[in-house]
Amino acid sequence: MKWEKVVDYLTTTDAHKIGILYLTLSIINLVLAGLMAFLIRLVIAVTPPGARVEETGIATGNLYYWFVSLHGLAMLLLFAMQAVVGMANVAVPKLIGAPDLYWPRINALSFWLQVPATVLMWGGLFFAQQGAGPGWTIYPPFSTGYTLSLGVDLVLMGIIVGGISSTLSGINFILTITRLRRPDIKMLDMSLFAWSVLAMSILMVAALPPLAVGAVMQLLDRHLGFRFFAPNPSNPAAGGDPRLWQHIFWFFGHPEVYILVLPAMGLVSEVLQRMAGRRAYGYTAIALSSVAIAAISFAVWVHHMFTAVQDWIVRVAFAVATMAVAIPSGVKVFNWVATLYGARIRLRAPMLFTLTFIAFFIVGGVTGVFFPVVPVDLHLQDTYFVLGHFHYVVNAITLGVLGALLYYYPHITGRWYDERLARMSWGLLTVGGGLTYTMMLAAGVLGMPRRYAASPTGLYYPYHVLMTVGSWLIAAGVALYLINLLWSYFNGRPVKNREDPWGAAKMGLPDVVEPAFKSPHVHTPWPALVGLAALPLSLGVLNILASMPTSIVKGVAASPQVGWAMVGLFVAFGLAWFKSDMWNRALAMRFMNGAAHGYVAIPKPPSVWGDLRVTMAWVIFSEAVLFLTLISSAYYARVVLYGQWNAALQKAPDLLSPLAIAMSIALWGSSFTAVAARRAFTAGDVRRFYMWIGATMAMGAFFAGSQFLVEYPTLMHEGFVPTATIHSMYFYSIVTLHGFHVLIGLTFWALVLLLVKVGYWTPKRPDGVEAAEYYWHFVDGIWVLVFSTFYLGAVNAIPPPAALHA
């Protein structure tokens, strides 16, 4: 029976069970990241002021910085991200009356991709002897030139894999909330948690691709001789700017905070209402404030860089935007407090965690208001004050999630948690967190720098001792909390009504809304197999990169043959999933008149686009952000490195050749044949559809073949190699990325043709054909931007910065 349950969870596509898997993995990462924090505080507490960390015998300097790096990365990208997505899997479908998430198999794949991401990121710890940890912000040139450890590459690959997982989750939640919500639930009456998850998901789709692009750029710097983020003293025309990474990272980093805090706010709103016994005051304002926070969060990233950006106009603009983002957050806090006023509050453990969330969030928010004040920020930058502010916010997120998990625990497990243990863990977490983070704020005001392995002077040492005591209280609180969950799972008092254990339905705030229709949960091993195969895929890519002669990672037994075999293994699993799932289902639908075994057509609310087409729209949005990040980086380099870019142009050949023009005409022309193919298909003329698709794919193949087999060798023969100049680095990286997407588009067309051939897509069910067409138009449209930037020289036509006129 136990083995059957294990297999059930390994093959499930049920959002509730996947949510439990997410929560379990997040708890594992919480324990590991908490252990890193414990070791950080221990090292600083036992190291005498001004001494070297090696003198204590506990850790080396390299190992200490790996503790710091992995604590920050794991807490944010592993524990917190997985926890909020897990809670969303458990609660959102039930709160909006959906039978499941929109794409159950993709939801399962998203979770299983988090497992390799977790293994890769923690794997960096095993290479500490090769170099220090890069810090959780992974700033170059430290991460690209000075840290030779393979652990940095593992972290970067973990970021890429985890980013793909989270992007897929974001698209899935957007589609679930907008298209599977029960028709009688209007948007403004929708659960506040669902609103917060919707805002979070939009942020995930828009903010995670830039970080993935930055991680790829760092891998190119580390292994292929590129220098996007580091100057090149021997050849200035081939050097980059380390501040570019700061722009990319914080364009992701500040929305990332709201990716985590928004669902925590939504959970707090749900628990607060039910424990106060009334609907939230200003319900609509709380809902819309989530969208406002998500929108403004993209306009504040430079406030993390006031010491790196000297332009006062830029500083003032971002200072104003940073102050503005506090307004919708203040709306939430005001309405939460107004909801509590005059309410008959049940001070059970979930409510205690919720109230502490509000208190910690207020402290974190108030201390954050100091940073938009530029003169104050210049003093506080890179001090413990920043740590105290940030930890108050992140700890508030943790308390909100832990409180909500206690609230939903009876619903998830069918058993009650132990109230006394829950209150004790709450007390330890509250006192320990308050002590630790207040001492951080105090030490920061006095000037204590962050990232130090020891107190520089005796002035700060007492504060570090108190921080360490507080961290021990936090550790004890987390341990007691987890013991409570585990003990209650086996010994807790059974719940009488698992669907509504708190009696929330009596208040008009039910925890479960009956879905308008049922959807069978399919069991398939392929999401788990393909997701886990991302681990050998990542290791295979690193094998190939580390075997390059330009790689800065030395002493690693890298083998390109082994690397390509690992990549092939992933491709084989992907093709096997396609055959087992879509291909076999297509054959079943063909031979059973469209009613395949185990396949049930799911009715969905009316929409302008169909199932796959609306999904493709969000995929295209995410891909567009990815391209715009890299292209805008080229324009940034042109402005910031104006002299170096001009020097690089002296070595660049004329890119606007007859071949480039012919390639472009062929690619853009293929958009018109793609339209003709789709029209022929929807009109029922399958023969003409095949003809037009053949023409589309032929022109796409001509473009890709000409680019990779003719244009590239010609340019390289003229000395225009990828690492020659900053101009050539951006040209080859952006054009190659686009060419890769052309190949993806051709593969997409080939799969669509196969499924049309066996009757999966038909003139009455043309979603796949239309989705492929939209993706192809996107690829062609991006080439307009790429062609204008490099071949027509738009990036070269930018006038010099005002500073050069002075």
Automatic annotation (TrEMBL):
Q: Which Pfam families match?
A: COX1 (PF00115), COX3 (PF00510)
The record's subcellular locations are: Membrane
What protein is this chain from? Cytochrome C oxidase subunit I /III
Q: Tell me where in this chain the Cytochrome oxidase subunit I profile domain is found.
A: 1-503
Q: Which family does it belong to?
A: Belongs to the heme-copper respiratory oxidase family.
Q: Give the originating organism.
A: Pyrobaculum ferrireducens
**Any GO MF annotation of the entry:** cytochrome-c oxidase activity
Give the record's keywords alphabetically. Answer: Electron transport, Heme, Iron, Membrane, Metal-binding, Respiratory chain, Transmembrane, Transmembrane helix, Transport
Q: How does it sit in the membrane?
A: Multi-pass membrane protein
Example GO CC term: the record gives:
membrane
* Biological-process GO terms, alphabetical: aerobic respiration; electron transport coupled proton transport; respiratory electron transport chain
Q: Which SUPFAM superfamilies match?
A: Cytochrome c oxidase subunit I-like, Cytochrome c oxidase subunit III-like
- Residues forming the Heme-copper oxidase subunit III family profile domain are 524-795
Which residue ranges traverse the bilayer? Answer: 20-44, 64-85, 106-128, 148-171, 192-220, 248-268, 280-306, 312-331, 352-374, 386-409, 421-443, 463-487, 526-546, 558-578, 614-636, 656-677, 689-710, 730-756
Q: What is its main location?
A: membrane
Query: Transferase among the record's keywords?
Result: no
Q: Which domain of life is it from?
A: Archaea
